[in-house]
Design a protein that fits this description.
This protein is mostly beta strands and 315 residues long. The chain folds into two domains: 169 residues, no CATH class; 133 residues, Cyclophilin-like (Cyclophilin, Beta Barrel), CATH 2.40.100.10. The chain has a seven-stranded antiparallel sheet with strand order 7-6-9-4-1-12-11, with no helix packed on it. It has a seven-stranded mixed β-barrel with strand order 13-20-17-18-15-14-21. 44% of the residues are buried.
């Protein structure tokens, strides 16, 4: 069973669960940038929450189905059309052979996820199949899709009830303004007193240096108590670093495993999926919480999602 890529858009890749247990080899996590939208799409078509799906970034994309398919689209797309007819996001949709699928560009947010009932064929390595563009590994030959590519998958057991929809209260609200809760990073105290205050007082705007590796944040420049070299130390998706120029940098799913800039904050696990929906121009307000509160928020979020999605982890 196949989907033919007619127009791939800006960056369309195969993404699912992150790579786990290989950071000592320098392998980033990678995986879906918005794991919640991925899980919601996969659930509608009967797949595991972290199964490989098609991640579409910013631009519109076109596909043609060569076989009967059951699909679902979630995320930031402005519309979802089949043969020119509007179809809803967050709903189970039946596709006939020859149908043209058109996923609209994003107006708010950054990424959309197209899931198909079954197992998408993807390159396997290190116990994972997601695309890591930095090394050309995983996914569809380790790269973004191009026009003419054929995405293959083995059919699965799709839900029988067409029109199955995600409950309204579980659909992420996508906008150009986000609140991200963070805990203090290991080097937070190295900021000068004014910078420790303004990090949580002002809104940051996502700058033009934005991709799956990370996002530049523009606003008032931060300053350290004293500039000094630090040894490279572990970093993760959601780590906020402060380079010497004072412009914070928020790491994304494809970020390196270690870094030499001060780690001033860490986006909490419950909010990390929102990083995948940030785009140039998005505004962010950081809110500081304790480690204990971060754990409590994550448990509360899982309790909200579990009745619909079943057992799930957010990364």
């Amino acid at each position: 069973m196949t989907l033919a890529v007619i127009k791939p858009g800006l960056q369309t890749t195969l993404q699912g669960s992150p790579f786990s247990g290989h950071r000592h080899l320098g392998m980033p996590a990678a995986g879906a940038a918005d794991c919640l939208s991925l899980a919601l799409a996969n659930h509608l078509v009967g797949n595991a929450a972290d199964a490989i799906a098609i991640e579409i970034t910013l631009d519109d994309a076109h596909f043609t189905a060569d076989h009967p398919s059951v699909v679902a689209l979630t995320g930031a797309a402005s519309y979802f059309r089949v043969n020119g007819d509007d179809r809803p996001l967050h709903e189970l949709i039946y596709i006939n052979p020859g149908d043209e699928i058109h996923i609209g560009p994003t107006l708010h947010g950054c990424r959309s996820y197209l899931a198909v009932a079954g197992k998408i064929e993807a390159q396997s390595l290190l116990d994972g199949q997601s695309t890591y563009l930095g090394a050309g590994l995983g996914g569809f030959h380790g790269r973004a899709s191009k026009a003419g590519d054929i995405i293959k998958w083995a059919p699965g057991h799709a839900p029988q009830r067409m029109g199955k929809t995600t409950p309204q209260g579980l659909r992420p609200i996508l906008s150009d303004n986000y609140i991200l809760r963070v805990t203090a990073g290991p080097e937070f105290s190295a900021l000068d007193s004014r910078s420790r205050e303004i990090l949580f007082e002002i809104k940051y705007q996502v700058g033009p240096r934005t991709n799956r590796m990370g996002l530049s944040l523009q606003a008032e420049i931060l300053a350290m108590e004293k500039q000094s070299q630090m040894q490279s130390a572990p970093v993760f998706s959601g780590t906020i670093q402060c380079p010497p120029d004072g412009e914070p940098f928020l790491l994304g799913p494809d970020a390196q495993t270690t870094g030499g800039y001060p780690r001033i904050a860490q986006v909490i696990r419950a909010d990390r999926h929102l990083i995948g929906q940030l785009r140039p121009g998005s505004e962010i307000q950081f809110v500081k919480v304790s480690n204990e509160r971060a754990t409590e928020i994550y448990r509360q979020k899982l309790a909200l999602l579990t009745p619909w999605l079943g057992t799930i982890n957010l990364w």
